[in-house]
Amino acid sequence: MKVLLVSVNNEKYPYPVAPIGAAYIAQALRSKRHDIRLIDLCFVEDGCSVITDALKDFDPDVIGISIRNIDNLIYNKSIFYMPRIRHIVDFIKKHTSVPLVVGGSGFSIFPEEVLRYLELETGIVGEGETAFALFVDAIENGGYVYDIQSLCYIKDGTFNYNGMAYTQINNRPDRSLLSNRTYFELGGMANIQSKRGCPFKCTYCTYPCIEGNKLRLREPADVVEELEEMKVNYDIDYVFFVDDIFNFPEEHAVAICEEIVRNDLKINWTCFATPKGMTPKLAALMKMAGCKGIEFGSDAGSEKTLKGLGKPFTLDDIAYAAECCMEIDFPNAHYIILGGPEEDYSTMKETFAFFEKIKPTAVIALLGLRIYPNTWLHSKAIEDGVIRKDRNLLEPTFYLTPKIDTDTILQNISEHAKKHQNWIVPGLDIRCDTNILALLRKMGKKGPLWDMLS
After folding, report:
1. According to CATH, where is 3.40.50.280 located in the chain?
2. Candidates 3.40.50.280, 2.30.110.10, 3.10.180.10, 3.50.50.60; correct CATH number of 2-161?
């Protein structure tokens, strides 16, 4: 079967991210001997023209649409991607009648809403390697598709969902289909995944909808082999681990670092991490293995707001994590959320004072929280009168605490951030100018730019 995969993401801020989800699916399909073509619209000005050529030259039997994000997640500068995506899907439907299947992390959060918005029948929730391969096989053999696990569909106006299937990560993404050098040069790093799932229960998080809450770990040796392939085959020497939490469980992180050191692999990398469980030993080992900085999901500088966000750690954990890094001159950035549940004037002041005290390399402050269905935050937003119960959340909708006037929140954050050089606030354009980001990339700066911008 000839399968055309279309990655519709074209967001390049703060840097473009290669669609490894689509590349994972491509590899799974190729292993079944299907003929694959992947169209990546990130760097394409006229997507419809490229799609026209593919439909004519490749003549696919099935088309998969990959949606990474629904919007850019930035309060005060919100961009809703779905109208553009609908235009692309409508164009495809106009020029072919082959089956269209939609998937991706953005779709997995809003499966019914996206299917209805795009007027499509079929989608895949969560990981698509197994489910999409089964779908293509069924189409090829004239089989029944509606019992495939992870599949959702609309039939006779009713939304149906077969439940999500979780699998081990048994293959690597087919990077030969990606513009690896373009992503590396414009984004400053490539992406790699060492695990799926997250066992924590943050009140706003969508990971259970995308990857589930049970950790599935890759073999450290396999991860390092993929890193070596990226370096040898694509001249990539800087990567970002896109795991929700790299340093949990600690023994898995340790094993990956030790494997990098044992293989004498000279590669630079960064990662997301949790403050809980960070130790001087792990920080030193990560640095020895080529890690150039850590991005902690610290979220707040007040015990009250940490609790409101469902965080499994304390301020002492955050301070200790920062100390573990600062003692060995290890750059560390802390993402925080201002204006979430339990936020008030006192907690905001506590947060300002706390991060001024621990002095991390950078504080990246996000304003409010994107509200997603089936989360505790969704219920809280209804309870607090932030949204109505029947509100369709597909279009960007944010929770900002009703305990503080919104203009006051923005003013206080702006005043504090402008006085502290290590603060970055994307929603207020503070130390995150797109022209400066582009200039730094042209100068050959690799990795995340927060340590330079701050």
Report:
1. 2-161
2. 3.40.50.280
Instruction: Give the CA count within 13 Å in the CB-facing half-sphere of 262.
Output: 10
Tokens of 387: 């949204």
What are the start and end residues of each CATH 3.80.30.20 domain in the chain?
187-453
CATH fold, domain 187-453, is: pyruvate-formate lyase- activating enzyme (3.80.30)
Q: Are 333 and 361 in contact (CB under 8 A)?
A: yes
Helix/strand/coil for 48: helix
* CA separation for the pair 191, 230 (Å, rounded): 10
Contact status, residue 451 vs residue 293, Cβ threshold 8 Å: yes
> Closest Cα partner for 418 from 430, 408, 436?
430
> In this structure, what token pair is assigned to residue 340?
């979430």
What tokens appear for 241 in the block? 């681990």
232 burial via Cβ count (<10 Å: 0-12, 13-18, 19+): exposed
Pair 273, 296: CB distance under 8 Å: yes
State how far the Cα of 11 lies from the Cα of 14, in Å rounded to an integer.
8
CA terminus-to-terminus distance, the chain: 50
Q: At what angle do helices 434-442 and 180-187 cross, to 10 degrees?
A: 120
CA–CA gap between residue 351 and residue 357 (Å, rounded): 10
List residues bridging with 268 in a β-sheet: 238
- pTM for the full model? 0.94
CB 291 within 8 A of CB 270: yes
Banded pLDDT at 222 (limits 50, 70, 90): very high
334-378 pLDDT, tens digit each:
999 999 999 999 999 999 999 999 999 999 999 999 999 989 999
Secondary structure E strands in 47-206: 62-66, 100-103, 122-124, 151-155, 158-161, 190-192, 195-196
